[in-house]
Amino acid sequence: MKLSEEASHESELFSLTALSPLDGRYRKKVEDLAPYLSEYGLIYFRVVVEIKWLLKLSEIPEVVEVPSFSSDARSYLEELICSFSVNDALEVKKIEKVTNHDVKAVEYFLKEKCLSHPEILKVLEFFHFACTSEDINNLAHALMLKEALNEVVVPVMDDMIKAICTMAKVNAHISMLSRTHGQPASPTTLGKEMAIFAVRLRRERHEISSVALLGKFAGAVGNYNAHLVAYPEINWPQISKEFVESLGLSFNPYVTQIETHDYMAKLFHGFIQFNNVLTDFDRDIWGYISLGYFKQITKAGEIGSSTMPHKVNPIDFENSEGNLGKANAGLSYLSMKLPISCWQRDLTDSTVLRNMGEVLGHSLLAYKSALQGIGKLRVSIKTYACYVHVTTYLSLWTDCAAYFFSNL
User: Fold this and answer.
1) Most buried in the list 77, 130, 270, 281, measured by CB within 10 Å?
2) Are residues 92 and 187 in the same domain?
C-alpha cells in the first residue's frame, strides 16, 4: 500500500518520510525556526528587501522616475510584506519553474502583485533597480539570521543559562566530592561547579550577540557600476549605507559581488565555542548522574529504560551532546567555507547557506534537550557523602561564595 493511501494526516506522513530528523521526529522542537530559516523564510526576506529598496528609491529626489509615493502606495507595498503567506511563496516557486532563477522569480511576483495599483504600475521596472541577485540575497540571509537569533535561538540560550544559574544558587553550599583525572579529589560544592558553567556559557553568548551582522548593496561586482551610469550625481555608497542600516544591519563597503561572509564565520565560530562549553556541561552532568549525585524525576507513565525499570537513562543530556556534535560539524564547515569565494564571485556559497537552518536547528534542539534534562534533576543524598570532613572547607567557601554568585 502506498504511504499516501494509508496516511490519515498529511503532516504525520511528512514527519514519517522526512529525510532530516529536524523536519521529522524533532519538528515540534525546532519549528519556531521555520518562518526564518526555511525556503519560505528566504523568499519572504527577499520580498522585504525588494520592496524596501523600491520605497528607498522613491525617497531619493534625483531619481525622478520614481516620484515620492503617496501614503496609499506605501501602505499597499507594506501590506505585501505583512500579508505574505505560504501561498504567496508557492506562487514565487511556480514562477521560478519558468525563470529558473529564484531571485528573478521574486521580482516577477512583485510586479504581478502591483499591476492593480496605478501609481506603482508606473514604476514596476524599478523593482530590482541596479541590483545583482546577491544584493538581495545577502541582506535576506542577514535578516534571516537576525530574526532567528533574536526571536528563537538566543531566548532559549538565555533560558538555559538562567536554569544553570538557578542550579548554582540553590545548591551553593551543597558539598560534593570533586573528581580530578576521574579519581576522588578535594571537596567542592555543587553550586560552585554549576556557577562555572553558567559564567562560561554567558560569556560565549555575549560574544555571539556582539557579532555585527553585515550587508552589502553595491551592485554586480561591488563598484556601483549600474548606479553611477544611471545617476552619476548621486552618492550611492551613502545611499546604500542608509538602506542597509535601515534594515537593522551593519554596512560593509568593501565587497565584491557578494558580502564576504566573514561575519558569518565569526558568528558560527561563536556557536561552536558555546556548544563546546555545553558539551562539557552535558558530560559532567551525565557523570554526576552516574555517580549518584543527581536523581532524575520522570513524569507519570514515562519509561526510564525499556528493560531495567530501576534506572532512568540520562537521555536528555545524551540527546543534547549528540546534536551539539552534529551542529558543530556543520558550523565548522560553514565557517571555513563561506569566507572563500573565487575572484569576484562563485556560486558555492549559495547552496551552503541553505544549511543555516540545519546547523542552528541542531543547536536549538540541543539547548532544549539540556534545558529539559535540567528540569528533571534532583540532588541525591549521595551528594553529601563526600567521605571527607568538609566543615572547614565549607566555612572558607562561605567567605568566597559571594565572588562566584554575585554576578549570576
Assistant:
1) 281
2) no
